[in-house]
Specification:
- The chain has one domain (2-187): Flavodoxin domain (Rossmann fold, 3-Layer(aba) Sandwich), CATH 3.40.50.360.
- The termini are close together.
- The protein has helices at 16-27, 65-75, 92-99, 133-145, 173-187, and strands spanning 2-8, 31-37, 78-86, 89-90, 120-127, 152-160.
- A hairpin with a 2-residue loop joins strand 3 (78-86) and strand 4.
- It is an alpha/beta fold.
- The protein is globular, with a radius of gyration of 16 Å.
- The structure holds flavin mononucleotide.
- Flavin mononucleotide is lined by residues 10, 12, 15-17, 84-88, 127-131, 163-164, 166.
Length: 188
């Protein structure tokens, strides 16, 4: 059975990112699913303490919900992060989450990653209003370049532009179809 991790990195209630994650979760059957709604859970930033680099074991000094999720990130087949665009970039929550991948950095391991389940699929999707979609796409692709830390070798980006209000993505059937396709890709 495939293991899939979904991250909602929007700060607001009824966010478009939240809807993306919930719709993908609802579409996925016969998988082991782990969902993190960051605004509702205890998510702390990496302090750069370096403890993770001094041990072969998967450890983190933070005592929060991301540390609890690390073993599942380690062994997942696919991971998706959904974030709003804030000031031409990902949300601070999305950045906080990605920085926690440092626990998997190992310069002696294949692809510098110590993850157990290799060749993961990773998707990074962003919701935005009127900003430049092509630049956001490049930025999202660049962000995924850093996912070598979890040995993500197949990646997918989607920018859902032209949406600003809470739940506005529900009024875009083309985007809802794309969300289904992303879910199917994560499971494939
Ligand atoms: C602080 C803040 C900064 C934003 N910056 C941008 C931006 O740079 N470009 C853009 O297109 N939209 C920007 N937006 C709009 C959000 O990306 C948009 O409302 C998006 O749908 C929010 O996603 P969410 O519902 O998942 O939180 C910004 C919104 C906020 C609150």
């Amino acid at each position: 059975m495939k293991k899939i991790v979904l991250i909602d990195a929007s700060q607001r209630e009824r966010a478009n990112s939240e809807i993306i994650v919930k719709r993908i979760a609802a579409r996925l059957s016969d998988v082991e699913l782990h969902v993190l709604h960051m605004k509702k859970q205890n998510c702390q930033y990496c302090t750069g303490c370096g403890i993770c680099q001094k041990s072969e074991a998967l450890i983190c000094s933070r005592k929060d919900d991301i540390t609890k999720l690390l073993p599942h990130i380690d062994t997942c087949d696919s991971i998706l992060i959904a974030s709003p665009v804030y000031d031409h970039q990902m949300s601070s929550l999305a950045k906080l989450f990605i920085e926690r991948f440092y626990a998997f950095y190992n310069s002696k391991a294949e692809n510098n990653s110590s993850v157990t389940t290799r060749k993961k699929r990773a998707a990074f999707v962003m919701c935005c209003w009127t900003g430049n979609k092509e630049i956001y796409k490049k930025y999202a692709e660049w962000t995924l370049e850093g996912f070598w830390q979890i040995d993500a070798t197949e990646t997918k980006v989607e920018i859902f532009n032209g949406i600003n209000e809470r739940e506005e993505i529900l009024s875009r059937p083309d985007y809802l179809t794309k969300i289904q396709e992303i879910a199917d890709w994560l499971k494939a």
